[in-house]
Structure formats: structure tokens, C-alpha cells
TrEMBL record:
Its EC number is 6.3.5.3, 3.5.1.2. It catalyses: L-glutamine + H2O = L-glutamate + NH4(+); N(2)-formyl-N(1)-(5-phospho-beta-D-ribosyl)glycinamide + L-glutamine + ATP + H2O = 2-formamido-N(1)-(5-O-phospho-beta-D-ribosyl)acetamidine + L-glutamate + ADP + phosphate + H(+). Pathway: Purine metabolism; IMP biosynthesis via de novo pathway; 5-amino-1-(5-phospho-D-ribosyl)imidazole from N(2)-formyl-N(1)-(5-phospho-D-ribosyl)glycinamide: step 1/2. Part of the phosphoribosylformylglycinamidine synthase complex involved in the purines biosynthetic pathway. Catalyzes the ATP-dependent conversion of formylglycinamide ribonucleotide (FGAR) and glutamine to yield formylglycinamidine ribonucleotide (FGAM) and glutamate. The FGAM synthase complex is composed of three subunits. PurQ produces an ammonia molecule by converting glutamine to glutamate. PurL transfers the ammonia molecule to FGAR to form FGAM in an ATP-dependent manner. The active site is at residues 86, 194, 196. This is Phosphoribosylformylglycinamidine synthase subunit PurQ. It is found in: Cytoplasm. It holds the Pfam family GATase_5. Keywords: ATP-binding, Cytoplasm, Glutamine amidotransferase, Hydrolase, Ligase, Nucleotide-binding, Purine biosynthesis. It comes from Sedimentitalea xiamensis. Part of the FGAM synthase complex composed of 1 PurL, 1 PurQ and 2 PurS subunits.
Amino acid sequence: MRAAVVVFPGSNCDRDLAVAFRAAGAHVTMVWHKDTTLPDGIDLVGIPGGFSYGDYLRCGAIAAQSPICRAVRAHVDRGGYAFGVCNGFQVLAETGILPGALLRNAGLKYICKTVDLRVQTSSSAFTGAYNAGDVIGIPIAHHDGNYFADPETLTALNDQDRVAFRYVGNPNGSVGDIAGILSENRRVLGMMPHPERAADAGHGGTDGAALFRGLVGALAPA
Ligand SMILES: NC(=O)CC[C@H](N)C(=O)O
């Protein structure tokens, strides 16, 4: 698998994401927010966590208008894979690539802790190395992780088996306990928790490693 990881001013999980992909066997190229194209032949673009452009306006709103996001949109429209973590999920929602919005946490506080997630579906390249129903411990670190979508969107997400992860104990008010969702073609995943922070024994937990291993397994090592 060949991946690109986008770097915005204010990204702070870009290298963590690249390390997790490389540890799983992927070839990774970093791309800058002002770049207008993604590297030729990439399978997947990763949009990392952090505070792109300082989280001004709304988290991810300025990043969604960046030159690289036009290339991300074209990649996704061609059927390419994309993976947005935390601020990356916010960016994917702000571009409209994924439905819904990430609102301020219900308790209005920044939350930084490891939470339990239930794997809702194993039917995607991202979640194929888990079993549906598995409960995994993955860190969250956000102040705008409260997922919201209108009832029609929620019905579509549920009916099409596109909820990838749900919180076991809802930390932020997300509707339906939703922690991560898939696109209609199941090739785009956005999630607020950080699997790249639970991908190595040194992190204190390795429950996120299967996501990267499964993805590289599904798309083939570089
Ligand atoms: N870790 C992150 O990516 C944080 C995302 C965003 N800055 C928030 O706090 O909601």
C-alpha cells in the first residue's frame, strides 16, 4: 500500500500516523497543505489529527478549503481510499466527503483519555482485521468530537452498515454513540479516536494496530 499523509499548519499527529502506516508495511509520503496534487499511484490519503490552521472558524473548516483538499476530493471521487483521524475526520466532514458535523463536546471540555469503542462492522478494509462486536481501547483527545447528523443521514448510516465504531460510554454527546463512519463505497473512514496512538506496546495499548495491519493487508504491502 502506498499512502500519503497530509500536513497542515497545526497538524500534530501527522508523523504518528505515518509511523503507524510504516510499521504495518505501507510506503508513506508526506504532503504539504499547499500542494495541489497527491503523489502518483497512491492508494490512500491520511488526514491526521491536530489543530489545522489553529481550529479557527470551525475545526477543519479552513483545511477543507486548502489546495490539497481539492486533490483529496479528486482522489476520493476516483475511488481512492481516505482515512481521517480526529481533526482529519473534522476535515472530511467539512469537505462534505463524509456526512454530518463534529460539534463542541457536550460537556464543553477538551477530553483526553482512553475510551472503549465497539467495532460495529468488520466489513471494510479499515475494520476487516477486527470482529464486529470487539471492544477496543483507543485514546481520544478533542474538544469538538460530538458527532451530529440529521435523522435521514443516521438512517442511511445504520441501514448501510456504515457506522464503523461506537463509544461504549459516550464521552462527548455524539448522536447514536457514533465514533467513526464509512463513506457509501466504504473506502473513506473518519473517526475521532486515535488508533495511531494505540499501535505500539510503548503507547500503553495496541488495540489500534489491527486497523493499520488490516488496511495494509487489504490493499497489499508496498
Ligand atoms: N486531536 C485532534 O485532532 C483534535 C481535533 C480538534 N482540534 C479538536 O480539539 O476537536
